[in-house]
Amino acid sequence: MDRTLAADPISGRKRAPAGRRGSSSRRASARGGLLGSATGVASRAGGRVEGLRVALRARPRLRIVLLCSLVAAPLLGGAWLWLRHSSFVAVEHVHVSGAHGAQAGAIEAALTEAAKRQSTLADDPAALKAAAARFPQVAAVHVQTSFPHGMRITVVERRAVAVLLVGGTKIAVGADGIALGSGAATTSLPTVGDDVAPASGERDRNPLVLQALTVLGAAPARIDPLVARAYFSPRGLTLAMQNGLLVYFGDASRPHAKWMALAAVLANETSGGAIYIDVRSPERAAEGFAPGQAPATAETAGGGTEVQIGKGESTVSALAAGLAAATPEGRARSAAKSEEESSEEPSSSSGSASAGEAGEGEETSASSEEGRGG
Known about the structure:
By secondary structure, the protein is α/β, with parallel strands linked by helices. Helix content is about 45%, strand content about 20%.
């Protein structure tokens, strides 16, 4: 590129070409505009400061108020910080609720001790949670303060849904797989086998066990005593009931829908002799019968069976009743049936006695069947 400067024919001085002169003038104009804007901003800011000075000189009271505010702000902030941690608002009365079981007293004592190191203006839920961390059955802690000295602590417990069997060791576990220790294990909980025993407060890492616990955790609480164990069969996750009835869940997907599908199947009168119920697809839940044992209104599923027919029929009835009571539709039907029965009057005393005797006979028979099914 030729950078030769052209000579001015009049003055003899060299000057830049016209294109370069235009760009230089534009840059100069831009710099001038920026400088002008900065100067304008500075002028306006200076004008405001000067206006404030004039206002303060003209109004002594305003000057006094401003000075007092500047002095009082840090004093008030310090006073507030002091008050938040002072004995005037220290926690003195602690009420702990929601803790149950053998360790309820220890949980309440640990939370009370941690709470009394706090104040009602500066409660620390994290410190309370840390105090309860050594109790694996505590899932969460909710705090509510009452000025000036009260604090209410609500403990949300982790419910045991199964007993983990590792060799000869029994460990209660929650639906999230957290081990609750051997002390929380009860005979009424279903069992799940595993190879490694997690330490108390630790989470089980076996994905198959976690699937079983998810399904058991989604079951209504009153169903727990009716489930014997959970294991994996060729049809996936399988629950064996106390009476020998098998329920095929397949996996842990849509557990609530599968439990409700099971309730719907058990509500049918035709399910009394079923040896298994398949809820792997909740919309197409099916009941299975041994060859020659299916009722006339049901289709025979056929296939081999792992249990005896008619074993523990009362447990099936109890399972159906428990599941039905867990659904809004079931509760509505139960209420309607109760109203209907209460509105009916017996035709004669002898008829009532006969009905009562029949009912007692059925109940005795059911109890004996349940005893054989256990």
